[in-house]
Structures are given as C-alpha cells and as structure tokens.
Specification:
mainly alpha
C-alpha cells in the first residue's frame, strides 16, 4: 500500500469524526464509575464469549431504540465498540480463565 495514500485516507477519517469516537471510547474505558463498579482489569477476567454476550445485549438495546447506557450515561454504541475491542484484545493476548 502506498504510504501517502494511507496517510491521506487516515487524515480524512480523522477529520470526519473518527478521532472523536476514539476519544469517547478512551473516556468510557477509563471512566471512574466503570472502574469502581467492575475493578480496573475487569474486562480481562471475562472470556470472549462473555464479552460477546454483553456486546449483543448492548446492540439489542440500541436496536430497540436505546441510545444511552443507563449506568454510564454514554452512547450505547460505545459499549458495543468497547466490547468488540476487548474481544479482539483477548484474541491477540489470550489468558487462562
């Protein structure tokens, strides 16, 4: 892939709001409420199947018209994205449960 083309495409994505979503995701993953509720490394104690179940629950809630997560007050789609990221992290770095 041509590096120049990639840089232009990435800049375009970031200009169109992708960076804002990434920053929101960072805020969700580092939220004080979430850490107090679940613990700092809670995500790493669940299996990919458990994360997928939670992802599906958030996605179903979104499809049913819920835009905001009741606990965090953040967009529910961020929770879907966060669970997908957690599943991918576990794929890259599996841990024994």
């Amino acid at each position: 892939m041509d590096e120049t083309k990639f840089s232009v495409e990435l800049d375009t994505l970031l200009d169109e709001g992708l960076l804002g979503v990434i920053l929101e995701l960072e805020e969700l993953l580092s939220s004080r409420d979430g850490i107090l509720k679940h613990g700092p490394r809670y995500w790493n104690t669940l299996s990919d199947r458990e994360h997928m179940s939670k992802l599906k629950g958030h996605l179903e809630a979104y499809c049913d018209g819920q835009d905001e997560d009741e606990d965090s007050g953040m967009p529910i789609l961020l929770h879907v994205i966060a669970r997908a990221v957690m599943i991918r992290a576990l794929e890259k770095h599996p841990h024994p449960l």
